[in-house]
Each structure stands twice: as structure tokens, then as C-alpha cells.
Design goal:
283 residues; transmembrane; globular; mainly alpha; membrane; 11 helices; Urea transport system permease protein; transport; 72% helix; ABC_UrtB_bac; two-stranded antiparallel ribbon
């Protein structure tokens, strides 16, 4: 029973990491932007749930998506678009933005962590499996299904894939790449906001909430393969389950070390990640 419980805890954590990594998969994979402020969009989503906890979790989810997504578009339009092709500069730029957002959260909500009360319909569970973690799993799978439909069935999704595969060819073919970039940031940042709402079901909310997960999210993106939805799903759940079991037998700090070592060893064997994004580019 303990093994089953840890497996479920790991799967639910993998679901949260998947929601966080999905956005990075597209912004990092499509535009080569190392967005360190992505973690703060998680924090913004979590505080949105905190502010709206009297209204309801199901209301907080779309509101968090819209707020985090809108801020992502603002960040892309005002700052990041001026640094395309300069990965190190975008890293430093977005790291500075993340520090500003954290301080802003401290000024508004205070430095101590705050809690969000889960709705009554998420209290209890099935045996050792809490309803809250079942909800997180269902939420992540629903988001993955929605993104898969968006990428394969909708015109904007197909344009996003075209830009990811070859930006120059897509541009000369008539695709408005700047418009696609904005939608990509809206989608990626919005998913981070949704992940922040999900995190309120398993822990407290604080100004530094996003920093605890941003490194793991980047590991998932790299291990799964840049821009590959299937790779991100497999890597997220594998990392979540591995971290859960190692933490169960040791402690949280050692679990992080073991997971990081496993990812590094895997990338030594397969540096391109689980799946490779095939393009028509010559380089």
C-alpha cells in the first residue's frame, strides 16, 4: 500500500511539473528563450487562487490562466522580443524580472507563506488517494489533451508547429511569426498560472514558490526533447515518480540530488532528449 501511495504522490507531482513544463516546452523550444520568470507566473497563479478562494477553485483556474498569460504577453512584447537570438541575455533579463515580481508579491501579500483552503468537494479521498491529487492528475491530462487538439486540429496550432520547425520558412510562407510568438507566450504563461492554482492544493503559497519548480521544469523540457509534447509527458511523470520514491526512502534534499544525477546521466547518453523535433532546416 505504501508503494501505491508513493506512486500516486509521484504521479500527481509529475502532473504539476508537466503543467509547468508544457509552457517552457513551447517558449524554449520555439523561440529559444530561457524564461526564468516562468516560475513567477506559477506564483501569480497561486496567489490568484488565494485571492479568489472565496469564489471557487474552478473560477480561479481560468482567471489565473488569463492573468498569467496576459503578463507573459506583456513581458514578451516589452522586453523579450528585443533579445531574440541572445539566449544568455534573455536568461539574465528574465531572472531580473523574476526578482522584481517576487518582491512585488512580498509587498502586496507579505513575506510569510499563506494557505489556500481546498473546496469541500475535494476533501476526503478514495482509500489513501486524496481527491485533491486525483483532481490535479485529471487537470493535467485535460490540459495535455487540449494542447494536443490545439496543435493538430486548429490553424493557430499548426502555425505554431510550423514556426517551431523552421521560423524562416514559416515567415516566407506567410505565417505571422510575431503573432505566433505572442500566442505561444500567452499559452505557456497561462499554463504556468494553472499549475500555480494546482499547487495550492498540495502546499502553501509564497513569493518564492516558482523557484522551487523552475529547475525541474527545465530538466523535463530538455530530457523530453525541445518542443515535444509526448517527451514532456513521459519525462514529467518519470521525474515525479522517481523523486517521490527516492524521497520516501531518503529525504527531500538527497532526492533532488539523485534526480539531477539521473537526468545528467541520461543526457550524456541521449543529449537530444527522448524525442527529436524533426525540421527541414539545413543546420
Amino acid at each position: 500500500m505504501a508503494i501505491l501511495n508513493q506512486l500516486f504522490i509521484g504521479a500527481s507531482m509529475g502532473a504539476v511539473l508537466l503543467l509547468i513544463a508544457l509552457g517552457l516546452t513551447f517558449t524554449f523550444g520555439q523561440m529559444g528563450v530561457i524564461n526564468m520568470a516562468h516560475g513567477e507566473f506559477i506564483m501569480i497563479g497561486a496567489y490568484t487562487a488565494y485571492v479568489l478562494q472565496g469564489v471557487g477553485l474552478l473560477v480561479a483556474l481560468p482567471v489565473a490562466f488569463l492573468i498569467a498569460g496576459a503578463l507573459g504577453v506583456v513581458l514578451e512584447r516589452l522586453l523579450i522580443r528585443r533579445f531574440y537570438g541572445r539566449a544568455l541575455d534573455t536568461l539574465l533579463l528574465t531572472f531580473g524580472v523574476s526578482l522584481i515580481l517576487q518582491q512585488l508579491a512580498r509587498d502586496i501579500f507579505g513575506a510569510p507563506n499563506v494557505g489556500v483552503t481546498a473546496p469541500a468537494w475535494l476533501t476526503g479521498g478514495v482509500g489513501p488517494l486524496p481527491y485533491s491529487r486525483i483532481f490535479i492528475l485529471v487537470l493535467a491530462l485535460a490540459c495535455v489533451a487540449a494542447i494536443a487538439v490545439y496543435l493538430t486540429r486548429m490553424r493557430q496550432g499548426r502555425r505554431m508547429r510550423a514556426v517551431m520547425q523552421n521560423r524562416q520558412l514559416a515567415a516566407v510562407s506567410g505565417v505571422a511569426t510575431e503573432r505566433v510568438d505572442q500566442l505561444t507566450f500567452l499559452l505557456g504563461s497561462g499554463l504556468a498560472g494553472v499549475a500555480g492554482v494546482a499547487l495550492t492544493l498540495i502546499g502553501p503559497v509564497g513569493p518564492s514558490l516558482g523557484t522551487y519548480y523552475i529547475v525541474d521544469a527545465f530538466l523535463i523540457v530538455v530530457a523530453g526533447g525541445l518542443g515535444r509534447l509526448g517527451g514532456a509527458v513521459i519525462a514529467a511523470f518519470a521525474l515525479g515518480v522517481l523523486n517521490s520514491f527516492v524521497e520516501f526512502w531518503t529525504d527531500a534534499s538527497l532526492a533532488k540530488v539523485v534526480v539531477f544525477a539521473v537526468i545528467v546521466a541520461f543526457l550524456q547518453i541521449r543529449p537530444q532528449g527522448l524525442f527529436v523535433l524533426r525540421t527541414r532546416a539545413l543546420t
